[in-house]
Amino acid sequence: GQKSLRQKVVDELKHYYNGFHLLWIDTKVAARMVWRLLHGQVLTRRERRRLLRTCADLFRLVPFLVFVIVPFMEFLLPVFLKLFPEMLPSTFETESKKEEKQKKKLNAKLELAKFLRETIAEMAKRNKADTG
């Protein structure tokens, strides 16, 4: 069924609270990683990717905070998200958006695999024709 306006507002507030909480946790972990880097330790590939993602999220947070701080500007947020889909920090993404991104990546990989398979088959035919 349809959610009431109050329930929608509560859900959005929970979403933003959880997003800020996750961003805070990521920031603390990233600060520890930077501390380790400054003391000469080497990060793993996974840690390096997490550090880069967190730094990018912190830079994305600046324009996002304008929408949160300025009164009634949050009503324009959906419009700006349509224009700039990567504007939102990664901790604020919904599960449906994450699944949509994964599907797009999978489709791109499948198309690439199909292209490579066709190319190899064509090269094999050409080689057979040259040797035969």
Please explain how this structure is put together.
By secondary structure, the chain is mainly α. The chain has 3 domains: 1-41; 44-87, no CATH class; 93-131. It is 78% helix and 0% strand. It has 4 helices and no strands. It has helices at 5-38, 45-69, 77-83, 95-131. Helix 1 packs across helix 2 (45-69).
Task: Considering the chains and any ligands shown, give keywords for the structure.
ribosome binding, mainly alpha, LETM1 protein, 4 helices, single chain, 3 domains, flat, 132 residues, mitochondrion inner membrane
In summary, what is this structure?
The chain is an all-alpha fold and 132 residues long. The protein is built from 4 helices and no strands. It folds into 3 domains: 41 residues; 44 residues, no CATH class; 39 residues.
Order of helices and strands: HHHH
Query: Tally of extended strands?
Result: 0
Please, how many helices? Answer: 4
What's the pLDDT, averaged over the residues? 87
* Unreliable parts: none
Tell me about the largest β-sheet: none
InterPro entries: LETM1-like_RBD, LETM1/MDM38-like
Keywords: Membrane, Mitochondrion, Mitochondrion inner membrane, Transmembrane, Transmembrane helix
Transmembrane segments: 58-81
Main location: mitochondrion
